[in-house]
Amino acid sequence: MDEMSVLDYLKLKLKPQNWHRPILPEESEFQTTETEFDEKPLRNRTNLISIFADSIQRETVSHPFYRVNLSFAALMAATLLALVAQLFLEPMIVHGNRNYLLSVILYGFSALILFISFFVQKKSIKEEKSDRENLLLREKEILTASLFNKTFYRYWAALSFGCAFIAFILFGSNRFNFINLTFWFFSVLFAVFSLKGIPSKETIKKQLIKIGSRFNPIQIQLSPWNLLCILVFGLSVWFRFHQLDAVPGDMFSDHAEKLYDVMDVMDGKHSIFFVRNTGREAFQFYWTVLIIKLFGTGISFLSLKIGTAIAGLFILPFVYRLGKKVGNRWVGLISMFLCGSAYWLNVIGRVALRFAFYPMFAVPALYFLIRGLSEKRRKDLVYSGIFLGIGLQGYSAMRIVPLIFVVIFLIYWFKLPKNSRLNALKAFLILTGFAILFCLPLIRIALVSPEMVFYRTLTRLSDAETSISASPIAIFFSNLWKALIMPFWDNGRIWVHSIPFRPALDYLSASFFFIGLVLIILRIIRDKRWQDIVLILSIPLLMLPSVLSIAFPDENPCLNRTGAAAIPILITAAYGIVSVGNSLISRFKESKINILFTAVLGIAFLFAIGKNNYDLVFNEYRQNYDLNALNTRQIGQVIRGFADSVGSADDAYVIPYPYWVDTRLVGINAGFPRKDYALSRDLIGSVVKGDSPVLFIYKDNDSETAAILEKLYPDGLEKLYEGKVSGKNFYGYLVP
User: Residue 369 sits in which domain range?
Assistant: First the structure.
């Protein structure tokens, strides 16, 4: 039998009646069937509104929404109150006259309405009750079923342990080399063999065929849903990379430290832990080297930003899957949209420091943990351990995640029947083993030099660097409260990675986060699902790296150390949005016009969220950042122009001035990253040889340097360079 061509396949899939059904290769154009949700064949319908409305109904039936049943009026009233409450907290709307007391009252009434409706509402309709009961029954069956895969090969485990021990000893030099990496690699390989044994040729062949089939064009489902997912992911890519070179525009000293570490890697110094600037985990530096090799962007701010922007995109498939587990795939899709467009995640991804690696590894680690425990999949727990182990070498905030894992496992443990707990513990220990194995190099350095690895943590938790101003317990609870209200009220004062003193969420996402939060709490009251408890608890737990800043409470709250908490927060917001949307569709299900109106309203609503976040990132954040950042890029461009025209890169100098530019950044921006352009004022007279022009750059209010230059080189040419922002001017003094 002849297979259909790709063109024929596309023709079939473009027809509405085939959107939600697989097309076999041998099918002809006339061998199509209708879906069970249609009253009559869609091919006979010419009304676009009907087709669109039917599609929405089909999605609703195919993917039932796990919700709390409330009266339509109560949900709408609560939503309206929450929106108004957040409007009074939005600086862009009330312009500095935020009324937190009125907002608290309105939010309180919103929650009260939802709770009252929940407790007085009649029982769910039969279909909805059946869907919920089926879900809970399935979860109960999984909990009581036996168990995780018990296969375990002790011989391979012993070999893995032996190789890991040797690698562990060899990592003590704080250097990666061929020998310790080889032993580390085989320790991982043998650990995998301990669970599955050595795969046969047939097994490998089947796996390769399975992987290849996923990329078979004939099997691609070109449904509206898949196209919608691609669109949302594409929008996220656009948010992450739009004006990436310009927003933010200038580096600060932390970027110099990172790029110097990157240069160390490129020079062959393959450190496990980098000691510069109080110590840093290694992942970003090797990741950036890979970015430089792939994109040819060199030692630059852009190289760092590309790396962290990609890290922000990496989490989106896991966000989608987590959202599906919370509600349905609509929740997953909107969660992905919110995480892709959110000011919070975009800013910490654009500032190009290690902040983005916290959600990058925490989110997949948590997803595989939850799925592995929910479905008793040992393989997922292995994946979770791998992401946890690598993530601990990405950003120090990840150090809180092992504690979160223990909390989640304990919640799950008490839900299990007693006869299943031992096997669950064994599976969790396998996760722990893989996490330790993949974090082995850093663990070794932590044992060799704990004061170096834990310096930043200890200085925030104790009085190692500064005295603690009040009771640590009082500071902790104060920090916790500030972090919890951060989505609604204040994300901190650090201009580098936030807009100071505004909410962490846009006003629409914040209000629906509140609605979603209350609804999930009501679900917990009703069903007591451990997954819902984990979702809510994960928010404060993932904020702990910021909350535990006891010695420096002014550093809390902050977007960077709470970055992973943005994921459950935005998933909860998506659940609130879908709850309201689902209620509207259910209310108007008899009218296709009303369904269409609701869909258009939903699109407009999401557009408003995207527009709001766009303004926050590309207007407000950009302006605030440029106002505070020092213009090393402009100075670097001046030196580059001098080197490319009349002078040499070695004959340009920047005269330091208190609280002015990091002269290392000048060299990086000029394209000479290994050169520090600083020249002490008392050495000005020693660098001019007379055989080539020399350029001196100094701050506009540095009158002492100006006087010295005019005295030593009266024939020099002085030029004022005006910064793009007021107060960023500087002078160039050219000695012929």
Answer: 128-151+197-207+242-626
